Amino acid sequence: QVHLAETGGDLVQAGGSLRLSCVASGSGFSIYAMGWYRQAPGKQREPVAVISSDDFTNYSDSVKGRFTISRDNAKNTVYLQMTRLKLEDTAVYHCNRVPPLASWGQGTQVTVSS
Fold first, then answer.
1. Alpha-carbon distance 66 to 58, whole Å?
2. Which of 40, 79, 35, 96 is nearest to 60 (CA)?
3. How far apart are alpha carbons 20 and 82 in whole angstroms?
4. Of 36, 41, 90, 95, which is most buried with the most CB atoms under 10 A?
5. Has residue 32 got a pLDDT over 90?
6. Distance (Å, whole) CA 113 – CA 9
7. Burial grade of 104 (CB within 10 A; 0-12, 13-18, 19 or more)
8. pLDDT, average across residues 52-70
9. DSSP secondary-structure letter at 100?
10. Residue 113 has pLDDT above 90, yes or no
């Protein structure tokens, strides 16, 4: 069973930056596409960034040009560099495979204040 552990969330002012990290347990990390997802209060979880096994990336329109996803297969880790944060980026951020596994980690809270 894969265990996903997200860290790096924080309270940050609008316009600021954060870097999220997610470590995945188990073997075979490098062969899977990975993604970052977020769930804002009262909304459904949505994908925001995806990285393929060979490092192709894709982003939702809402974060394109501001967020960067990357991975380090030697560390079983996927990152999300977030810049020019907006109030509407406030959410719990999760990582998971693409398509996602049934089980999710606890996520990490990102709160953007004005």
1. 12
2. 35
3. 8
4. 95
5. yes
6. 13
7. middle
8. 98
9. P
10. yes
